Amino acid sequence: MGTGDIEERHGRPGALRARGGVGGHVGAPHPVGIRLERLSKRFHHRVQGEVYAARDVSLAVAPGEFVTLLGPSGCGKTTTLRMIAGFETPDAGRVFIGDEDVTALLANRRHLGFVFQNYALFPHLTVFENVAYGLRVQGRTAAEITRMVGDVLTLVGLQGYDRQFPQQLSGGEQQRVALARAIVIRPRVLLFDEPLSNLDAQLRVRMRAEIRALQQALSITAVYVTHDQEEAMAISDRIAVMSRGSIVQEGSAETLYARPASEFVARFIGRVNLVSARVVAVGVDTVEVEVAGQRVRAVAAAQPAVGDKVRVVVRPETVELAPAGSLGPAGTVVARTFLGEKVEYQVRVGDETLQVTRPGGAADARFAPGGAVTVRLPADGVGLLRDDA
Amino acid sequence: MLWACLALFVLFPLAALVARAFFEGGRFAPGALASVLRDPNHLRAFGNSVLLGVLVAVASTVLGFLFAFTAVRGGLPRAWTGVLEATALLPLISPPFTTAIAIIFSFGPRGLVTWHLLGLKGVSVYGLASTFAAETLTYFPIAYLTLKPVLAALDPNVEDMAFSLGSSRARVFRTVTLPLTVPGLGNAFLLVFAASLADFATPLILGGNDFPVLPTQAYLQITGLFDFKGGAVLSFVLLVPAFAVLLLQRAWVGRRYYVTVSGKAGAQTAAKSVAAWARWPLLAGCLVVTVVIAWFYALLAYASLVVALGANHAWTAVHYRVIFSEGVKAIRDTLVIAGLGMPLGGLYGILLGYLVARKVFLGRRAMELVSMVNYALPGTIVGIAYLIAFNDPPLVLTGTALIIVACYVFRYSPTGIRTTVALLQQIDPGLEEASASLGAGSATTFRRVTLPLIVPAFFAGLGVVFIRSMTAISATIFLISINWTLITVRILENMTELSLGPAAAFSMLVVAIVVVVMAALSRLLRQFRTPGRVMVASLLGG
To answer: ipTM of this model?
Structure first.
């Protein structure tokens, strides 16, 4: 049965538009994009008065793209996601799904799939009925429902769980039911609100791979919210880092890691050394800076002038250690922690303490705490931070 | 629609009461109030009411705490806890006179204890002491039900911590357990005080001429002297302490200590706050009360089966024949009214609870407050207010069943409302959002998701309205008529006619019906899967 039949029967124009897929296959053949235009949402805070949960958030998600909103709690990522879903109404700005302006549309007319942090499974319904819920709302026939629910439960690896109640399932299984319930209605877009935060570490890693694989298989546009930078990097095509209600930087995981635009992003994504430096030469795309007596090339976000004091982003694993007396800045090993696959050092160079990570296989007894050492910064690939960041 | 109902059945009667008390021919005339306040009898009644309330509240709180502490911290076998629970439940589901009747049977001029056992003559059972004892036994379950969850929510780990810091048991009790229970104790005190203040049945029977209290005075003013104005003024005087208690309770308990039933309740640890040897004195203390209550009910059952307790102890079924012949109308009327009120009250409860807990609209808090008014006010006031409001056009309801049903619905549904609100607070709003994201409109969401989850509240509300319809008297005694009467009123009539046998038989019947219906309801409730178990909140209300 085509979707047009349902539209006619229920007379809800717009509600089911842009829904692809006919027959038993779960999926949306023609993914649609999402566009947020200067979304703002204020809340009333008991102490601080009016506060912005989201402020001028603009974001474009390409059809089929997997974008993650990443940030610490309270940064506005969930509020933004909930505005996409229609659970919150923005005070200003517009939300587009595909070409349709859905800002004024109720959540139940947007036709999106939402996966909740705590799953939000209906406790009084069986797994089958939980998944069938959206299909029943659409008014599908019993035969269709049985087939579609069966298909999707197989897809998420839950065949045979039909008659169980949510309380009888493990956290991971509940998460799969929530996923199945969201995708069975063939939503235009999938939205995830920290779906893995209630699972233990190992399961989190497995589930995020499954979610990513599922999204790819369905080729569906997805927006994902998390505060876990590793999860964000593992699952997304693109990450938008949020802080205090605004998107502060967006880009691929590699870009954010290698060229963070601000100290906030640098510190939020991975471990980092922020080292004072002085600009000694300005090139076209890069500048040359002097860090602890060593000259390195840096990728600049803004164009500084020669002589400016700046800070550079040095990732711990890009720093090399050499025996004392080698060419390069001299330092003292303060601490050394053996972690199996890697060894972490703290090395004092001048006024700064650098975090240095070396492969575990290269564990070298020469670099013991208290010993002198030579530090080598990467010759290029160092990120340069603006002064205001 | 709901506002219209609330206005008609809550605000309008109250306004009518105040109008009757203070306005004479359209003009403000506070003279009536002044003359009432000058009447030494009324002043004494006021003093008596407050005195009785304080005494009963103190004694009930102590007794309630003893029961709750023993049940929660005593480390007793389940069977004993069950006994305590049953002891506390029985007075709650009985008609209001049962303890009073049993006290007369035991300690009256021809009482089993005073006359037969001790051979005392000319004993007067009437007065403060007996009223106090009867009310304490009737209302301590309120304190018990209030304190038990408070004590149960006290994490034994906290006490363990105090022990590990070297405290003795007595010290832990004094410095940890008791202080943490203080808000609960205050709450229990206020609830019992309000219940005693509003109690009408017990003082009417046991107070006698020497111990008038406000509710009985107001009743006599209206039924004896047909002085509506005097009754209105008197009940207004009763309003003052009642409101004071309400405000105090709101201020004190303030933000309710919601105990979340989360998985992470700390390590399971056996409560060690009670030494093994201390367990038994505690239990013994409780059992004394249990025995007294059991004795009272046994006596009642016995009295309903003998010709005349105290005089002729020959077995007979005559009292039951009486209530099933002459009394059959009262039984039928009561069941019809309870049967009508039950679904209406249950529905009204979840509807209002849902609106208050989930919807944002203007006057939401006002609606919640107004819905609680009839519940918080003493029944006498509500009864008189209804009588005054619906006796004359525009809306004449006196003499109909509707007025009694309306009284019950608006007076006893707050339990259903609060259970609904409590349940909804436990239900993740995400469920409703999930439903919306799957395409369901708000009506579908309510029907398919919310409603099934608050069904337990519906039955809780249902149960309370039913029990109260069977046992209440203080408000509805003003509302009965030739057309519609109630079992409880018949019991009172029997008492005043000194036909104690039928009164006892009626009481047994009520207890039996309530027990059967309660059992049926709780069985029904078990059929529903609920996300969290919500106790049927206190069955308080006179």
So the answer is: 0.76
